[in-house]
Amino acid sequence: MPSPLSLRRAGRLAGRIAGIAALLASPWWAAAQAADAWPSKPIRIIVPNPPAGPSDIAIRPIAAAVQGVLGQAVVVENKPGANGNIGAAEAARSAADGYTWLWAMDPVITVNKHIYKNIGYQSDALVPLNAAARFSQALVCNPRLGFKTVKDMIDAAKTRDLTYATGGAGSPGHLVMESLLSTAGVKMVHIPYKGPAPAMQDLMGGQVDCGFLAAPTALPQIQSGRVTALATSGRQRSALLPKLPTIAESGYPEFDGTFWLFLAAPKGVPPEIQKRFLAAMDAAIRSPEQQEKVKSVDIEMVGSSPEQAQAKARELSDKWGALARRIQLKTD
Question: What's this model's pTM, rounded to 2 decimal places?
Fold first, then answer.
């Protein structure tokens, strides 16, 4: 018969074995193992816009640079639709294992939750991790109106009905125009289109008077004289249109219609995986080569920490959410 001492020793040994087994089965240990093995398969970055748009053009060289650092394929997947909700929902519902990320314009994560009844996921299921880049919109009008400045447009809106085109309800052009009209105390009739291209076509044709559109979309038409540019929306002048004043320089000094591109991830990605991916991405974002590549689409690469990205997302959500409530903007 085993002695009491032997039984106690056997009990302690069994307890230690059970403790080790519990540790190996714990979520913490599994996460640590996953972080050590990551990346062991291709990584995807979802872009909730069609191919060849400014955000898509910006992310592809970054993805290639990150792939070189991590030694694993980084694939950009375009998932357009529903003002970005389709792609964002797919990212939000993906496993938080570091193999799925979202690259999106800020309205996708800061505005849509205010204007859609159902965006397809819980808004806190996506976590902004890098406020990577900023961009603005160009205010353009049909030349027949004779407007040369923002003041010309605002003064005209005080005396007669004017219309403005956008790429859709809740798009950057819609938000920034309503922000300007609210600041100036005037109204114009919103004519939403399914994207900036048809909006520009009708603006050139005179079916609609003015509009805030992305500078790359507007630039060829500005240069040809088919539309007249009045200002850009951001705090800094556009690299594509450096002679064009900002709205802030046009009589509204506090105005800021800057938009952002965010990198986000499903909530719960292990910190070590976040750290490695963000380090590779931030190096690409801040590289002179990337800065040069995005000049053609009027994007300024910036980069941020996760804390800064989340603070910026909250700031923009508060700003655009308040505007959406004020103009009673609902899309469904």
Answer: 0.86
Q: Could you tell me the sign of the dihedral formed by the alpha carbons of 272, 274, 276, 278, in that order?
A: negative
Residue 53 binned pLDDT confidence (cut-offs 50, 70, 90): confident
The CB-based long-range contact list for 65-70 (8 Å cut-off, 24+ gap) reads 65/280, 65/283, 65/284, 65/287, 65/290, 66/277, 66/280, 66/281, 66/284, 69/280, 69/283, 69/284, 70/39, 70/43, 70/276, 70/277, 70/280
pLDDT tens digits, one per residue of 125-184: 999 999 999 999 999 999 999 999 999 999 999 999 999 999 989 999 999 999 999 999
- Whether the CB-CB separation of 242 and 226 falls below 8 Å is answered with no
CA distances from 184 to 161, 247, 275, 302 (A): 15, 11, 44, 30
Per-residue b or e along 282-320, where b marks 16 or more CB atoms closer than 10 Å to that residue's CB: bebbeeeebeebbeebbbbbbbbebeebbebbeebbeeb
CA separation for the pair 118, 97 (Å, rounded): 25
Indicate whether 22 pLDDT > 80: no
Kindly tell me if the per-residue pLDDT of 20 is higher than 90.
Answer: no
Do the Cβ atoms of 123 and 266 come closer than 8 Å?
A: no
Q: Are the beta carbons of 154 and 186 closer than 8 angstroms?
A: yes
Q: Is there a contact between 265 and 97 (Cβ–Cβ < 8 Å)?
A: no
Question: The tokens of 157 are what?
Answer: 């809106």
Nearest-angstrom CA–CA distance, 95 and 288: 33
Place of tokens 């009027």: 298
DSSP state of 246: B
Per DSSP, helices labelled H in the chain are 4-25, 27-37, 54-70, 85-92, 106-110, 112-115, 150-159, 172-184, 196-205, 215-224, 271-285, 288-293, 306-326
